[in-house]
Amino acid sequence: MDSDFGIPRELSELQKLRSLYQPELPPCLQGTTVRVEFGDATTAADVADSHTISRSFPRTYGQPLAHFLRATAKVPDAHIITEHPAMRVGIVFCGRQSPGGHNVIWGLNSALKIHNPNSTLLGFLGGSEGLFAQKTLEITDDVLSTYKNQGGYDLLGRTKDQIRTTEQVNAALTTCKDLKLDGLVIIGGVTSNTDAAQLAETFAEAKCPTKVVGVPVTLNGDLKNQFVETNVGFDTICKVNSQLISNVCTDALSAEKYYYFIRLMGRKASHVALECTLQSHPNMVILGEEVAASKLTLFDLTKQICDAVQARAEQDKYHGVILLPEGLIESIPEVYALLKEIHGLLRQGVASNNISSQLSPWASALFEFLPPFIKKQLLLYPESDDSAQLSQIETEKLLAHLVEAEMSKRLKEGTYKGKKFNAICHFFGYQARGSVPSKFDCDYAYAMMTVKRWAQSPGATSIGKPAIHPATVDLKGKAYELLRQNAVKFLMDDLYRNPGPLQFEGPGADAKPLTLCVEDQDYMGRIKELQEYLDKVRTIVKPGCSQEVLKAALSVMASVTDVLSTMSSTSLNSQTPL
Amino acid sequence: MDSDFGIPRELSELQKLRSLYQPELPPCLQGTTVRVEFGDATTAADVADSHTISRSFPRTYGQPLAHFLRATAKVPDAHIITEHPAMRVGIVFCGRQSPGGHNVIWGLNSALKIHNPNSTLLGFLGGSEGLFAQKTLEITDDVLSTYKNQGGYDLLGRTKDQIRTTEQVNAALTTCKDLKLDGLVIIGGVTSNTDAAQLAETFAEAKCPTKVVGVPVTLNGDLKNQFVETNVGFDTICKVNSQLISNVCTDALSAEKYYYFIRLMGRKASHVALECTLQSHPNMVILGEEVAASKLTLFDLTKQICDAVQARAEQDKYHGVILLPEGLIESIPEVYALLKEIHGLLRQGVASNNISSQLSPWASALFEFLPPFIKKQLLLYPESDDSAQLSQIETEKLLAHLVEAEMSKRLKEGTYKGKKFNAICHFFGYQARGSVPSKFDCDYAYAMMTVKRWAQSPGATSIGKPAIHPATVDLKGKAYELLRQNAVKFLMDDLYRNPGPLQFEGPGADAKPLTLCVEDQDYMGRIKELQEYLDKVRTIVKPGCSQEVLKAALSVMASVTDVLSTMSSTSLNSQTPL
After folding, report:
1. Chain B within 8 Å of A253 (Cβ-Cβ)?
2. Structural domains in chain B?
3. Is B504–A503 a contact, with Cβ atoms under 8 angstroms apart?
4. pTM for the complete prediction?
């Protein structure tokens, strides 16, 4: 299995140039002196879950926020660390490969060696299986040379995506003890970071000195909160997909005879579909979050698309591009219910060709209504995270099929008088995740060890074991608002935008994800800003100031405190998870 | 239909930069003086067809080759044209959109206006239908501004791909007469250029003064011969697809658990698959030409892939990437025979659900053996060029299905002892053809009016009307030889190469197609070189030279002439079409 891992690769000219690119570090991570300010205790994303989580994570819950400071920052009580004993750290790829993974390893190796040249970084070969089997490769600058700024996870490989069963956790513990690791870094998505959080607690309980660190690297863009504004890989994935979507838009506009249905990555969350829509301006996007929130049925979705097709036909337009995330199928309430029944039966050991006869009458009726190819795909065994095998379910073909049938019906009935509806379907799944990472992802991944306390602040599911919630598209957020504002224009006016292929020089090379630009990010920056205002007031209103100033300040601050208290108690009750 | 054509587009930053790029003209097309050397009469690619072709094209066959010369060229009998009366030219997009189409229009407009500012270029809106309906847009630099160096055909659009029936040809003739066109430029692939050749003959017969010019712009890379080394669009298509293939290779190498089956564009010819293989080094490629030449059956192909999977499993490798062109399905002899039967029945009006019962026993046996999804796709009505609806036939899924079944069988029988075989299928079809064109295609398309006599030298089918042969991959050519030399290494050693995303600056931006670089091109250049040698001999051996020199020259030239005469007569009989 591991024969090919870690060997030097033959690089193309472009790859060679990219391998020479040196990512920039944020000021707070430059130099060998580390300055940390410890802040408030971390809490759960949803206050209602804090009790459950603190009970499940008695040793790791509620640790203080660590804020890394630049050399010029004036924070009197900052911890200044100048001594760095040699450390032994292990690193492992878990979960689906995403652009930027190699740079996390490179950045960590550089940081370890800068702080103490005697530190050691061990990469586990073959993902979590390599971790259990103690198969390691010592990371050196030499080993990294043909992997710097390159895509894929092929430096170390990956296998199974979980460290969860008692056997797996014990194997990880044994490895960390045997190899005398000070730290274990797990690079992965939602599931792997949930595992990392659990592992940290288990290690603490077992008094194992190895610190567990989760690094959010995933395609889906769903590992983010107020401290981690996006995850590594998302920018590249969206850039590569946007290029292809834009090409298809140009194609649609040139031939004017096809509707393209494009399924994108994105399981519980539709961030990729939203970002690509803001980048490429296709005619329509169906977000899983919208469908779930409005409880739209398959029939509703079909009608919605057909009405759009009809409205466009009235303007003599017979082409269009429609995006949807692969997770959409699970967001449709009746399909989700059907999938739950199927998965339940499969887990009971019912053979897939006997499932349909054992479904409830309602689920059976829906199942029989679906075309054969989808039936077959819905009968696939669920994945380890309980979701359906989303990459295998051709939701784009299902919708195209239903829309085609409905448009033919309208044509026959005379309610639609346009030309025949033609659909072409695409799944943009695996072709982006091995991409050479964008500059953004190179830089971000290289500097990624900043978030090492992040995995200790998981959200929770309402029943059972706490787990990290994938951050879904915030239907009250600015990115979604931007989409809604433009939805009608995008639908009717073909305002297709073409960001072009991923560039490393010139326009677009330094572009950030649009959703990141429009969302209110820099949470910590704004907290700092607020503290500066408070400090200013304190400086102005001190012994010696006039009675007028004091009275004005008192009156204003009393009402400010009042308003904020009221707002806080309201928002606690109706908080949307961040 | 034409409401959106020709309107200014909103460009992204990268597109704006691209729109400012000025393609370079070859020296022979620079300036306002045109120098042409007329050469030998053009002949058919296959000498055996020359009689048929000359009979079908009595007015346009056998015109002299026109060789454009640079200002510094010393050719005594060159025609030097300095007077350029104002011309009226029409231009139309036919066939599938390919990157670079807009630059053909831009380049032609620039050339017309440089030679005479009073010349007019009219674009037909909506492809051949616009040509028949006389819907035009006058091309100006202003109209072109947001289309320069951009992908798609959306400046003018396209509709039906043919100008062939008497009605269509007459409509085209009327348009050219009504609009008083001196020239009609048809931008398209094999079919459109066949139509262009036929139209030129018909116009000549009807004494219509409009000259018809075909410009080879197609995805497939199959419009080439010794004078046209490649067609516009091919470079971009291969670059975009190679990027995606390389990403998938990286993916395969990272997870080590999937075989990816990727279907590419390429109907009668597998140039795209060959070029992408040389660019990305996937493990295997199946070229239609190889399959047809070796008469490989579905069973042979399945066995070939399974043996490869098994050989890799013995090296503990359970991943791989396999490319195939969409035309492969028609290259498999027994499937081709089946398709012919199906298409015959469909043309007789037999409903698709009645076809299977009316097939010959042999065809019926094959049909029943195939999985349902392929059956359905094979039953689709053939396209206007008589081929199956190749973009709709998922040959990659068929092969993955057959390989999976065979590997399971081998596993059960114990002849294969490795892990379960897992396949993921992709069709890289429509996502590349709307791409922003590469620098190569921008330059090449802009300079494309050099080949205006090209359409008058068509190959011929053996029966019926002459048509342009798509140039297939030459199994004796250097590009194929390079592939064969590396095939085993590519298969076993995962020498994946990643040219990266299409760049416009830095490494790779100026890369040419590899097949173009390795093939013996520059045919005309080498003919010139030969002529220079002959001239040198003439200069050396002239009255006044010594007897020894004269004798040596005579003796050498006698044997040279002898050898070449023998070689020529042999190669005439066994010539591979160029």
Report:
1. yes
2. 1-25+84-217 (3.40.50.450), 33-81 (no CATH), 234-436+471-492 (3.40.50.460)
3. yes
4. 0.89
